[in-house]
Request: fold
Amino acid sequence: MTPLHHYLILSALLFAIGLAGALTRRNAILVLIGIELMLNAANLNFIAFWRYGPKPEQLTGIMFVIFSIGIAAAEAAVGLALIIAIYRHYKTTNLDQVDSMRG
Amino acid sequence: MTWPFAIIATLTCASAIAAMSLRNLVHCALCLTMTFAGLAALYLQLSAQFVGLAQILIYIGAVAILVVFAILLTHGGEETPRGAIVSSSWWIGVGIAVAAFASLAAAVLSSVVVKRTATASPDVAVKRIGEKLMNDYVLPLEVIGLLLTAALIGAVIIAMQERRPKP
Reply:
């Protein structure tokens, strides 16, 4: 069976990819996708630690991931609604042009 | 490392990189779906069947569709943008991400979890998950139901057409 640290390294890699995308992309939808990728990397960590933990029959990791997926779904719905509202107001989703609060 | 893990991990990482770097937004959404499917396969490999199927239902079935709808509503898929797709200070973001990955990988490789091996496959029948949700975790379940209701109502109100004041 695959050792635990392979899953952890993969999860760190996914987190880094999501972070890079969220920090560099200009489009607001892609920034949200990057945040979703980071959340998924955290979920993979939860599941891996639960499976390799001392007491997997307690199901704590699975419970945490179920609630985390619920939170992520709510976050995606509100975030995309905000992006649609921003698009209606500014007629763009390019974050470099949404700068009316720039000092 | 086993071959199924290597294949799924390569596929997941490649599609994640593609989702973050492609020019056309619709292609990004399709690659994101691939990433979610790869993660679901990893959950199934870790014998978390319920979470794997929930990942397919929620992420591929709901979140990816929501992203595609947002792209269509903001006319993001009509034409590929001509200018730069990343902000002008992109190298700072990439540097922060590389630093985050390096520190995480160093922490993982130097810790004691490297030696940990898997125990026998636990019994994760859906019946047991349901019993847990209805006994130990009933309060978080109610709270998350309330949160989802509030979030969905809020999303509808935010995205609703602004009513123009009558002159």
Notes: The mean pLDDT of chain A is 90. Chain A touches chain B through 72 residues (CB under 8 Å). The helical segments of chain A are 4-24, 28-52, 60-90.
